[in-house]
Specification:
Two copies of one chain form a homodimer. Chain A has one domain (about 5-225): ComB-like (putative 2-phosphosulfolactate phosphatase, Alpha-Beta Complex). Helix content of chain A is about 35%, strand content about 20%. Chain A is built from nine helices and ten strands. The first copy, chain A, has helices at about 30-40, 50-55, 100-110, 125-135, 150-165, 175-185, 190-195, 200-205, 210-215; strands at about 5, 20-25, 45, 65-70, 70, 95-100, 115-120, 140-145, 225-230, 230-235.
Chain lengths: ~240, ~240
């Protein structure tokens, strides 16, 4: 089977997703936060394109969450820090969610009719890889980037997934090979590289009270694999699969 | 001063080139071949968008050169292998040139009104870096890629330029930092990485008679720095500059 890496959603039109498994990656922080939400027991997440659209779902018993430019949008229940989603109050709830990059990548790939869309983060990397291998489908690792530009942390994660899957997947394209090289170069110290990234600098400038970078680089602390079913992200029951942890 | 890397021309709309020096990079092989042509003594090169347009210049005393999908287009005088351009017959001649990726990247960046457009290859890397530093302008390293997708060899070269310029330029964007990481990881053996690239595989499948990969990775064998002047690439006389070799 083949694995491709797409560095940013802006390059999606160059690819076909038909009959492939797409993993959407937004390490800092949307896809990490989604994993945390499902681990906490959230029922479903509706990815939406804009804060305006998101706001409408307030009337339909959704928790509404919106982030733009790394900060919570005023008037919303929640932002995009994973720490917010550890709150047990969220168990059983439904969330309408919009972020600068991650939810946009989900919406764009959904429009291209892939076999399935999974949510990836370091938190669930081994469970994710088990699910991918079980699919027996070609794989696309879609980095959400920052406003359609390349980012380091998403590419690094794509490389980490490829490293775990190297017995099962070939890397015929240069973007995949490059992502894998980046991971191998930094696998002993992912944090230093990610702290040098432009998005980590953005956090520093915003004086965030929580250390979201460190949190988002924890590996294999949960087994959830959020997956699109219709318009919603849900957490399907994991089935027996090969172990990657 | 700041240095940015753009992985493919498809991402150009996300950037501004105004008042910046743009280096167009197509290591395998257009920008390497252009350097060889000027070293041979070619007078000027006209980058054109299509073989059809290129053909018109046959009537105006141009040598016409066209490559698509790594092979010479039928009916043209020349293709895109650097070895073809070492022919002394070309001294003083003008060439109309169209290639799959490189000439497209030049045309696209020209339309965005940069301060200047320079042509980069490993063959002229130190002379190129001298010219960049003398400009005292922000820098954009534009990888031509392959049909708008990311490629390894152009990114590797962008990283090599950044490494030479690191005392003069900052790398505020993740694409630049990633290119520099790729170069540092492979600087002792660029050839192995480039031979693993998809474009080198394309050459192998075509059973090319010359070893273009090895040729294109030679460093600092010439001092020419082709530059856009109006519609043409020309080789300006180098002025005194810092030494990077």
């Amino acid at each position: 089977m083949n694995a491709e890496v797409i560095h940013t959603p802006a390059l999606l039109p160059l690819y076909t997703l038909k009959d492939k498994v797409v993993v959407v990656i937004d390490i800092l922080r949307a896809t990490t936060t989604m994993c945390v939400a499902f681990e906490t027991g959230v029922n479903k997440i509706l990815p939406v394109a804009s804060p305006e659209e998101c706001l409408m779902f307030k009337d339909f018993d959704f928790i509404i969450a919106a982030e733009r430019n790394a900060v919570k949008v005023e008037g919303f229940d929640m932002g995009n820090s994973p720490f917010e989603y550890e709150n047990p109050f969220l168990a059983g709830k439904s969330i309408a969610f919009t972020t600068t990059n991650g939810t946009k990548a989900i919406k764009k790939s959904k429009a291209m009719n892939p076999h399935s869309i999974l949510i990836g983060s370091f938190l669930n990397i081994s469970a994710l890889c088990e699910r991918i291998v079980k699919s027996e489908k070609d794989l696309v690792l879609l980095c959400s980037g920052w406003k359609d530009k390349y980012n380091l942390e998403d590419t690094l994660f794509a490389g980490a997934v490829l490293d775990k899957l190297k017995e099962y997947y070939q890397m015929p394209d240069d973007a995949a090979l490059s992502a894998w090289c980046l991971f191998k170069q930094h696998e002993q110290d992912l944090e230093s590289l990610v702290r040098a990234s432009s998005h980590a600098h953005r956090f520093t400038l915003l004086h965030l009270q929580t250390d979201d970078v460190k949190f988002c680089l924890q590996q294999d602390i949960m087994k959830v694999v959020p997956e699109m079913q219709g318009e919603y992200l849900v957490n399907l029951t994991p089935q027996q699969a090969k172990s990657f942890s």
